[in-house]
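Take a careful look at the sequence and tokenised backbone pasted below. I need to know what the token row says about the fold.
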Amino acid sequence: MRIRVHRIDQERGGRRMTRPITAGIDGTEESLAALGWAAREAVRRGTGLRVVHAWRFQPYEGIDAGDRDTQAGWARDAMAEAVRAVTGRHTGLDVDTDLVEGGSVDVLVAAASDAELLVLGSRGHGPVVGFLLGSVGQQVIAEATRPVVLVRAGDQAGAEVSGREIVVGQEGDPEDSAEVMRFAFETAAARGAAVRAVRAWTLPPVFAYSPGSLKLLDEAGGLEPYEKKALASALQPWRERFPDVPVVEHVEMGSAGQVLLSMTARAQLMVVGRRARRTAVGARIGSVAHGVLHHADCPVAVVPHA
């Protein structure tokens, strides 16, 4: 069942916007913070905002919790109130709001497929690593085909201050990180921010060397110069495409997750890539994205690799 709450066609300058910024909300503090973040990003990028709430009828034994229509009305009213709050702060923002009956993961993954990016709330830090996002957030991130941004409860517009950077993790060849770089540079351009591109490296075991790799390292002058050259190569097309975006190249020895987390104090947004893998118990994201999502103090964008 789909209940349309509010719709405004997304027309700007005669051009119909086909990919809105989408926020998934459920009435919690963290989801309302995600909605605020999504609204600000939609204004910056000049897109529409879509707000989605996955809802299911919940009968409670011994408690008068209303019938299906009553509960749908409560959810509709709560969503409308949240939307009024963001449209009150952002006059003229185009909003398309859906209350959808169905499982949260299925609804949000479907919503992400039609979005420029999907924004969700995160509960923040907790005592047990692996449970901070909840099963819904982790499954959506693993299965979504579009970027997903996680926002902590209490996130404020003031965190997006001048001087803080878009920090992006780069790994592999330029083609491997193309979508991650694209997202980071587009976001930085919309915000007037700098990009700090981070490439972490470690000493490989002796058995990993081959005659071909040794030749490449010799030509580059050693491991660290080789990594710097690899990062510069990955950045070159994006520097050319976004000449007004300042770029800081950061190459550091260490695990990728730890190096990225050391940058959170200077970041207004952390951008990482992910390759989801299927296991017997469902989809799982990579260790770098997992670690950053659980421990970064700033919003985190997870971008699927092509």
Remarks:
- Confidence is low (pLDDT under 50) at residues 1-17, 125-132.
- The chain is about 40% helix and 25% strand.
- The first helix runs from residue 29 to 45.
